[in-house]
Design a protein that fits this description.
7 helices; 2 domains; 71% helix; single chain; Helicase, Ruva Protein, domain 3
Length: 121
């Protein structure tokens, strides 16, 4: 069985390029593919990503779930839970762990959200 391969006709426009030009063309096309992904990653988040961030900052799975739930209620998830926790820790001169524990209380969380939102405007 003979394979009908069209690699020569599809690659004809690349035949005149040397190795350096092919390398540059490869990275140009790669950049075109990756740039939209990077933009999406830098402008988007999700509850699961934010839970993961909170856990890496020292929250337990249960605490992280609560923090993300409260952040969604207060509509600050888009800023990132890590950003929020760090901001509150810095503003109140508490450790991240202390802020994580205190933020489990909804009243404390809402109060700190007001402070955070004012700073973000």
């Amino acid at each position: 069985m003979k394979r009908n391969d069209d690699i020569i006709t599809r690659g004809a426009h690349l035949q005149h390029l040397d190795d350096q030009q092919l390398n540059e063309r490869f990275w140009e096309l790669t950049k075109q593919l990756v740039d939209p992904l990077l933009k999406l990653a830098s402008t988007s988040t999700s509850p699961s990503i934010e839970r993961s961030v909170a856990m890496r900052m020292g929250a337990s799975s249960i605490e992280a779930t609560r923090l993300v739930f409260l952040a969604q209620q207060q509509m600050i998830l888009e800023y990132g839970i890590g950003h929020f926790l760090y901001f509150i820790a810095k503003a109140t001169k508490q450790s991240l762990r202390e802020v994580i524990v205190a933020a489990q209380d909804e009243l404390y969380f809402v109060e700190q959200c007001k402070r955070f939102k004012e700073a973000m405007q």
